[in-house]
Amino acid sequence: MVFFENLAKGFIGIFNAGGATLVGLITGILPTLIVLLTFVNALIALIGEERVLNFAKFATKNIVLRYTVFPVLAVFFLTNPMCYSFGKFVEEKQKPAFYDAAVSFVHPILGLFPHANAGELFVWTGIASGITTLGLDIAPLALYYFIVGVIVILIRGIVTETLTKLMWKD
User: Fold this and answer.
1) φ, ψ (nearest 5 deg) of residue 106
2) What spatial distance separates the first Cα and last Cα of the chain, rounded to whole Å?
3) Longest dimension (CA), the chain
4) Of residues 152 and 26, which shows the higher confidence score?
5) pLDDT tens for residues 89-147?
6) Are 123 and 163 in contact, with CB atoms under 8 Å apart?
7) Which of 64, 66, 124, 133 lies 20 to 30 A from 148 at CA?
8) How far is it, in rounded angstroms, from Cα 161 to Cα 16?
9) In terms of C-beta density within 10 A (0-12 exposed, 13-18 middle, 19 or more buried), how is residue 40 classed?
10) If 0-12 CB within 10 Å is exposed, 13-18 middle and 19+ buried, where does residue 83 land?
11) Is-contact 155 99, C-beta < 8 A?
């Protein structure tokens, strides 16, 4: 009989923990996400969509900008999965490399800008909860995660573009 009581307590405990997590998200990260999304949309409106598009065309001409600044802006402004639509600004042979860079950046940006990939925020919040449980500040980790992410997407973009060019040869 004790076994079934413990089983029932454990079963309902899962839902109680889930409820506590939900309340934590509602009072913690969700207001931040809403404000960030509002800010990004207001920023695009203030700058002007045409200017944003012109900058995108400029940024794709340089290989370093194409696989650093451009994917970062795409993920920041359009978020996952819309950021991949920025691929329309790159040449056909560069599209696989741009996609590789953008898809590789949707997690490293989460620590600083959680609106960018809200669907997979649980990854960052899991890491962050472990760090805060240890009594450490998550800000340096978020910054390092971002910087390493930019370095990785540059490397991946260049490697994928090179491989695509090799395979594209007739």
Assistant:
1) -70, -15
2) 73
3) 73
4) 152
5) 888 899 999 999 999 999 999 989 988 887 788 888 888 889 999 999 999 999 999 99
6) no
7) 133
8) 49
9) middle
10) buried
11) no
What does the alpha-carbon distance between residue 25 and residue 23 come to, in Å, rounded to a whole number?
5
Per the CB < 8 A criterion, the answer to whether 76 and 116 are in contact is: yes
Strand, coil or helix: 141? helix
What pLDDT is attached to residue 99?
95
Better-predicted residue by pLDDT, 135 or 8: 135
Proportion of the chain above pLDDT 70, given as a percent:
98
Residue type, 47: I
- The token pair at 58 is 């400029």
- Quick one: tokens of 32? 């931040």
Q: What does each C-alpha distance from 49 to 34, 45, 117 come to in angstroms?
A: 21, 7, 22
Query: What pLDDT is recorded for position 27?
Result: 81
